[in-house]
């Protein structure tokens, strides 16, 4: 059985969605970041970086990043079509996937959620935190404007970000979810994508399982 290490409402929600969409059997192990579960010897033995998500495969090999897990899922179960077969479509999907995870999450939202990672010099945290929050918010807004331009045509056609449902949709959804819960406005195309994702039964199931009202 696959072993999935997750934190409700985090980036792991995107992987949770993919696991359910693929109808895979897995065990869910909750990592309480507030309590510091990610720093325990037991967890560090699985992932020395102390990050989530983690997916331990049936052979015991751990996959320890969103991109790594998502790509493995899409590649291991190709009949589900989570990775486009056309090389150009595949490249564009990978670009959106990477941008959501590495930039919107890894650069913009981290300034909002974990500003201490960016503290410099001797300035008081109370001075730096508001500045980093505003910087992060501006980055999120600008990033989603770019995403909207990339997905607008497909959204107008009633499709998903890259046409058919793909890995990129799960990644975009979790950062859109964060934006909505942080009262950061989404461009129309991203809002439509977010609403389309919420209409997927398994996305609604995942949110309810993780303790969120849909």
Biggest sheet, strands in spatial order? 2-1-3-4
Into which percent range does the helicity of residues fall?
55-70%
Name the structural class.
alpha+beta
Shape: globular
Overview of this structure, please?
By secondary structure, the chain is an alpha+beta fold. It has eight helices and four strands; from the N terminus they run βαβαββαααααα. The chain has helices at residues 12-21, 41-46, 66-76, 87-113, 125-156, 167-181, 188-198, 201-209, and strands at residues 2-6, 26-30, 54-56, 62-63. The protein has a four-stranded mixed beta sheet with strand order 2-1-3-4. β3 (54-56) and β4 (62-63) form a beta hairpin. The protein is globular, with a radius of gyration of 17 Å. The protein starts with a strand and ends in a 5-residue tail after the last helix. The mean pLDDT is 97.
Write the layout of secondary structure elements.
Layout lengths: L1 E5 L5 H10 L4 E5 L10 H6 L7 E3 L5 E2 L2 H11 L10 H27 L11 H32 L10 H15 L6 H11 L2 H9 L5
Parallel strand pairs: 1-2
Antiparallel strand pairs: 1-3, 3-4
